[in-house]
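Running log. JK asked me to keep both predictions on one page so they can be read side by side. First protein, sequence followed by its C-alpha cells:
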Amino acid sequence: MQRPVLRHPRSSLAPFLSGAVYFFAASLTLLTSRFDGGLAFIWIANAFLLAELLTSRPSSWIATLAACAVASALATTLFGMGPVAAVPMAVINMVESLIVAILYRRLVPGRTVMGSMRSLAAFVFALGGVADIVTAAAAAAVAAKVAATPYTLAFVQWYSGHVLGGLTCTPILLMFLQGEVRRWMSETSPRLRLEAVGLLLLFAVLAWAVFYQSRYPLLFVPLLPIVVIAFRVGHLGAAMSVVILGIIGASATIAGVGPLSLIAGSTGERTQFFQLYLAFSFLMSMPIAAELNGRRRLFRLLQESETRYRLMAEHSGDVVFDLSVDGTIRYASAASEEQIGLAPELLVGRSAVTLVDPQDRPIVIAAHRRALERPGTVQTVEFRPALSAVGCDWCEMVIRAVLDERGLPTGVVSTIRDMTRHKARQQALQQVAAVDELTGADTRRAFLEKLETEMRRTRQGGRSCLLLLDLDHFKAINDRHGHGAGDRVLAAFVERLRCGLRGIDSIGRLGGEEFAVLLSDSDIRRASTLCERLRRAVAAEPMAIGDGEAITVTFSAGLVELEGDSASAALEAADKALYRAKHSGRNCLRLAA
C-alpha cells in the first residue's frame, strides 16, 4: 500500500460542510439511541471527525474543530441534554478527537489505520485506551450534573458508545476520504468486484435474518462470514461488513426485536450488550484483514523482487546459483550453459562443489559455511573451475545467505564470474612490481619477501646464506661517464652475476648500486667460494658503457649465514661485513662476525 497523502481543503466552505455532516450524525444518534434522558448509547459523529483529522493537514484542524464544535453544541441543545450541557459536551467531543489524532500521528506518522497490525493497534489504543477514558470521565460528570444520570452509568454509556462508533465507522470513512475505495475499484478486476459486492449483499441478508428474528440466539452466525469476507475482499470488505452488521444489528436492537430482545433489561442495556458484541466482531475481523493486507503487500513486493532477480539473472553474463544449505543447486541461470558448458536443467540437483577444482574445494566450502553462519554478510572467494566452456582459468564467487521468516538460513545465492583476465592482469602487475625495470633483478620488496620465506625454511633445518654486494666507486662512473653509462653498468653487472648463480638463487636490487644475493642450500664455505668466483668473473672482463668504451668494475661484499634470526638481523650483519670490506680496500669479501 502506498503511503497516503494528507488532504488539504480546497474550499473555504469545507469546514462548514464538515460541521453539517457532524450535526446530522450527532442529531441522528441522539434521536435514536438516547433512551434515559442522559447520554446517547451510540455515537458516530466523532468517527467522522476522526477520519477528517487523520486524513488532513494539521493546519486545517482548527477550522474543522471549530465547525464541528458548533455543530455538536447545536445538536446537544436541540436533541440532547439542552443548552446548559451544549458547550461542555462540545469541548469534550473535540478533545476526544484531538487526543486520538495527535497520539496516533505520534505513534505511526503518515500511515493509515488499516495499513498494518501496528497502525490498527495504535488506533485502538489511542481511542479506547486513552481518549475515551479521559473524555468519559469528563462527560459523565456533566451528565451527572445536568441530567442526574448516575456517574458510573454515564461513564459506561459514553465510553461504550464512542468506542463503538469510532471502531465501526472510522476505518471505512478513512478509506473513502483517502481514495482507497476508488483505488480498489480501479485496481480490482470486474470479477473480484462482483464477488465482493455479492459477498456483502449475502452478508447483509444473513445479518438481517439473524437480527430480525427473536426465536433463536444466532449471534454467532455472522462471525464466520465476516472472516471469509476479510480473507476474500481484504480490509475494505472487513470494514464494510462491520458497518453493515452495526447498522442492521443496532436498528433491530433499538426497535426491540432480534435475539437481543431475549435479554431481560432495558433498551439501553441491550444496546450496550450489542456494542460489546460489535466490538468483538471488529477486533476479530479487522486485525485479520490488516495482517492479510500486510501479507499481500509483502507478497507483491516479493513478486516484484523475484521478477527483477529473474530478469537480471537470465540476462547477466555471470552465472547465478541458488544453493541449498548442503550446497545442492536448486536454480542455475542461463549463463551457466555458456560459462560451464552445461544447461541449467542439467545442473539442478547437482552439488555445486563438483564444479570446483579439487585443490580449491576446501576454501569454497569454508566460504559457503561462513555465509550460512553469518547471515547478512557477503563472502567472496576465488577458485579454479573443474569445468569451463570458454577456457576460464579463475572464477570469483560471491555468496550471501537466504533467510526464512524466522531469520534462519535456507540456502545461499551465489554469483560466479570469470576472473581469468583480471587474474592475468593482477599477476602481470605483481610481476612488474616484483622486478626491477632497469636490471631485471628482484625489487627490494620482492627480495625481502623471498628472504622471509627462506628464513622460515632455515628455522626448520635448512642452510642458506645472504650476500650483500656494492659496486666500487660507482659514483665516479656516473660523474665521469654519465648516468646512462651507469645504468648500463648496473644491467651488465646483474647479468654477469646471474651467469654465475644457480637457478635456485635470487638477486635483488636493494637500492642504487647495492644488491643482495640469496644463496639457497649453501653453507658459509660454499657461499664464500661462489662469491669469490663471482668477484673474479665481474672484474675479469670490462663492461661496455657505449660509444665503444668499456670499463672494469669491481664490487665489495658482505656474507652471512642465515641461522633462524629475523631477516632484519641478517641484513644488518651482512651490511656490517660489507662495511668492513669497503674499508679493507674494496674488491673483497668479508664474513659476518
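And the second, directly underneath as requested:
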Amino acid sequence: MKRYWLLFVCLVVMLCAACSEDSSGDKKSEYRVVYSGEIKTLNYLKTSETNEFAVAANLVDGLIEYDKYGVVQPGLAKDWSSNNDATVWTFKLRDDAKWVTHDGKEYADVVAQDFVDGLHYVLDAKNESSTAWIATVVKNGEAFYNGDMTDFTKVGIKAVDKHTVEYTLETPTPYFLSMLNYVCFFPVNGKFIEEKGDSFGTTRENFLYNGSFILDKFEPQNERVLVKNDKYWDKDNVLIDRIRYKYNKEAATVAPELFLRGEIDSASIPTSIIDEWFKDEKKKSQVRQTQNNFYTYFFALNFNPQFDAEYEPENWKIAVNNKDFRKSLFHALDRVSAMLTLEPYNPKDLLSNTITPKNFVNVEGVDYTQLAPLTDLSNNDTFNKEMALQYKEKAKTTLEGKVTFPVKVLMPYNSGMPDWANRSQVVEQQIEKLLGTDYVDVIVEAGPSTGFLSEVRKPGKFALLEANWGPDYADPSTYTDPFTADGTYNKPELAEGYTEANGKSKYQNLVDEAKATIDTAKRYELFAKAEAFLIEEAFVIPYSVGGSGYVASKLNPFEAQYSPFGVTAEKFKGQRILEKPMSNEEFKEALEKWEQERADALAKAAQ
C-alpha cells in the first residue's frame, strides 16, 4: 500500500463490544479498540502510513469497494467502463452521496470535481503527498508533479459533468480499478480544503466526511471515537454504531488480560502465552488463527545509512556494498527460528522466498512466483549454513584492510510490538552464533512505537531491518515500488557497481522494461526477472507473508470486505459484533467454506 512503506508502524488491538442507549431508547452497538501507535494526521491525501489511512478508510469513500469475497463493487461510482486498450476509464457517480461536517451536518454533494480536486492536491509537489507516485499512472501526472507542466487541465482527469469523471492514463492499465482502492484516488471537496489549507486533517473539525463513520472525538494519545454517519449513502450496511479507540502504550501487553476479565471482546494473543491459552479449555474456545494476507515481509539492507557515528555507518556502507558480505547474511538468516516467535506451530506455512507472495497474480493459470527465473528462488529456502560460511570467508578476504571487523549491524525494531522485539533477539543470536562475533556485531535497538516509519525507516537509521510492504493494485509492479529510485526504501539503486550506460541501476532498467510492456505474459516474465535479480544480488532477504498470529475476537473475518490491496481491509462496514469469539476449529471450518465460495464468486465475476 502504499505508499508507502508499509512497516508495523502501529499496533492496534481490537477490543470490547458494549451496548449503550441513545436518547430514543434504541440500543447502540459499540466496538472498543486500544492502540499504541498514534496517528499524526487525518489527511489521507498526504499520508502513506497504515494506521493513518486505516482511520481515513472509514471516514471517506472512494469510487469502488469490494465485497467479502474480493469482487469489486460500486462505491461512490455506480457503474464504469473503459475503452478497448484500458487507457480511458469513465465513472458514473451516484447522486445521493453527501459530504458532512464533524457534527453530521450536510456540507455539499459528492461530485465529479471532487475527484479532480483530490488528484490535483496529490500531484501538487508542494503538498508532499507520500502516494503521489501511484497517481502518476494518469496521463501527464508525472510531468505535472515534476513541474515540467503547470496546466493541470492537461493531466488525465476531468469532470465530464456533475456526476461523470473520466481518467486518461499514460499506458494501457487493465488493473486500474484495483488502484482506485487506494487513498491517492479518494475525493476531496475543493472549496473546503482550500479554506483549511495546511490545517486540513489536523482536527476532526478540519475534515469532511462522506464515508460510513464520522470522527466524533479526536484527542491524540488519549482517545478517538468514530460514530455511524446517518447521512451515509449505504448506512443500512453499517452494522456497528460506534468505534472507540483508547490509547494505551502497553496495548499489546494488557489486552489479553482485559479480554479474560470480560472487559473487551478482541485482543491479539502473543506467542509467549499462546500455549497457555490452548492448554486451557475456556481460553482455547476463544482464540483462533488470523488470516494470511498479501503483505510481504523481508529484511532490508541499507545502502544509504544515516545512523549515528557510534554504529559506524561508513564501515557498514563499505561492507554492504560487497556482494559476498551481503550473501553471507542472506544465507545465514534462519527464517524458521525467527518465525517461531510469531507462529510456534506452523512457521513454514508463512515463509516466503520471494517479495511477491504466491497466489497474488497469475498468467494463463501459472502463478507469478513460478515464472522463470523466479521459480528456483520461490521453491527453495535461502537459509544455508555452508553457503553462509563460504561467503563469510570470501568477504573477509576481499574486505581485508577496507573494513573493521566485526562489522556493526544496527537492527532497530518497533518497541510497541513484543513479538518483533523477541524476534530481533532471536535473529541477533542466531546470526552471530553462525557467522561469529568476530565477523558481525548485530545491535538490536528499540525504536519508537509511534512514528517508527518516519523516524527510523524513511531517514535510513538502520543497517538491517525487518520491514513490510503491502500491494496497492493487482500487478507485480506494486512490489517493485519500495526498491526503485523513486521509492523510500533501502536504496539498492545506490549499490556500487550496478549503474548502467543510461545512468540508471540495472534493477531500475529491468523494472522500467517490464512496466513498458503491455502483453501480460511478457510483462510478468520481465518482472520475475527483475525480482530474481533483486534477490539473487542479496539487496533484500525475503522472509514471510503477513497476517500470522493468534487473536481472540468477536469480529467475524469472513464478513469483512476483502481485498489484497488498498484500504479495503481496514473498513468496518459490513461487520457485526458476535456474541462470542470464534474458536480455531470454527475459524478453520469457516475459512474452508469461504475459500470455496470466493473461488466461485471470482469465477462468476470473470465471466
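Observation for JK regarding the second prediction: The domain at 296-545 is CATH 3.10.105.10 (Dipeptide-binding Protein; domain 3).
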